[in-house]
């Protein structure tokens, strides 16, 4: 089975010195967009890959301890930029989103979850277990805002990594093991633990035979894997497992060389933003 279409959306941005994401960069503040993918599956309907920023992010970060998040990471978005509002403009109602795939539980990926109360949620158990065991304050240190998670999350959630994994074809480079999300070959999830525990990426197999790799936050900037220039050491404070983080970047580098026809799309890269501004639509 192939995915009919993939559209990317921009839900706002935060700012950080470039050097944090790219050690050879400057201390100048640059913008990191929070992007979201909308996939159309031929029989299952609409699927979101992450949910970006939404008003719930502002509500969650009003009070201590989560107000610290907003202070450390200045965030810019309007209500119109939430996925709910942008989808309505595209004629898609929240109930039409059948599944939401959450790559990891950082606030800029989960903030829109509350806007889609009927969607089933797919993620890795490894990612959820890491958040579940922590207190509200403890999750903040992991970049997660527990207040953005729906109260019925556990009833609606299924774990992709509870299925048996499969060996991937050589075309996926050093990503040798993955999970067939719906058992139909349309979406393959690969563990990208590093940036966050249990974070994963998604190989999207499109109707045209094109493959897009939504790699979430395995890198913030594409030039990180292109040039193998890693984030500054300060970023280690935000990283769950810095050894795996580097290994994933090396795997992305290898993939980009070995299978250049696979388009690698990181959530927060400026080039992903450029694609959205240019109206890129994958079929
Ligand atoms: Zn993240």
Automatic annotation (TrEMBL):
Q: Which reaction does it catalyse?
A: 3',5'-cyclic CMP + H2O = CMP + H(+); 3',5'-cyclic UMP + H2O = UMP + H(+)
SUPFAM superfamilies found in the cross-reference section: Metallo-hydrolase/oxidoreductase
Gene3D superfamilies on file:
Ribonuclease Z/Hydroxyacylglutathione hydrolase-like
* UniProt xrefs under SMART domains: Lactamase_B (SM00849)
* Biological function: Counteracts the endogenous Pycsar antiviral defense system. Phosphodiesterase that enables metal-dependent hydrolysis of host cyclic nucleotide Pycsar defense signals such as cCMP and cUMP.
By sequence similarity, the record places it as follows:
Belongs to the metallo-beta-lactamase superfamily.
Keyword Transmembrane belongs to the record: no
The alphabetical list of record keywords is: Hydrolase, Metal-binding, Zinc
**InterPro entries with a match to the protein in the record:** MBL_superfamily_lactonases, Metallo-B-lactamas, RibonucZ/Hydroxyglut_hydro
Domain of life of the source: Bacteria
Residues of the Metallo-beta-lactamase domain: 33-268
Names of required cofactors: Zn(2+)
Q: What is this protein called?
A: MBL fold metallo-hydrolase
């Amino acid at each position: 089975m192939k995915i009919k279409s993939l559209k990317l959306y921009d839900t706002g941005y935060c700012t950080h010195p470039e050097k944090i994401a790219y050690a050879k960069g400057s201390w100048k503040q640059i913008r990191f967009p929070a992007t979201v993918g909308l996939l159309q599956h031929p029989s299952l309907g609409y699927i979101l890959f992450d949910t970006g920023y939404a008003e719930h992010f502002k509500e969650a970060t009003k009070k201590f301890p989560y107000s610290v998040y907003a202070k450390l990471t200045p965030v810019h978005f309007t209500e119109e930029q939430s996925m709910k509002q942008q989808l309505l403009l595209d004629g898609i109602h929240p109930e039409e989103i059948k599944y939401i795939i959450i790559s990891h539980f950082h606030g800029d990926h989960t903030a829109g979850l509350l806007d889609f109360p009927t969607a089933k949620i797919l993620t890795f158990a490894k990612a959820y277990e890491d958040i579940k065991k922590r207190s509200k304050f403890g999750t903040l240190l992991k970049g997660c805002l527990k207040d953005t998670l729906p109260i019925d999350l556990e009833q609606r959630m299924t774990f992709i990594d509870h299925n048996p994994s499969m060996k991937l074809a050589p075309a996926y480079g050093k990503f040798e093991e993955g999970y067939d999300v719906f058992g139909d070959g349309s979406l393959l999830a690969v563990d990208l633990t590093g940036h966050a525990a249990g974070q994963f990426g998604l190989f999207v197999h499109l109707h045209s035979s094109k493959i897009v790799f939504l790699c979430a936050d395995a890198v913030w900037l594409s030039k990180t894997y292109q040039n193998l220039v890693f984030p500054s050491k300060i970023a280690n404070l935000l990283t769950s497992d810095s050894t795996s983080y580097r290994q994933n970047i090396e795997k992305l580098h290898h993939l980009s060389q070995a299978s250049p026809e696979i388009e690698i799309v990181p959530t927060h890269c400026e080039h992903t933003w450029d694609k959205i501004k240019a109206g890129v639509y994958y079929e």
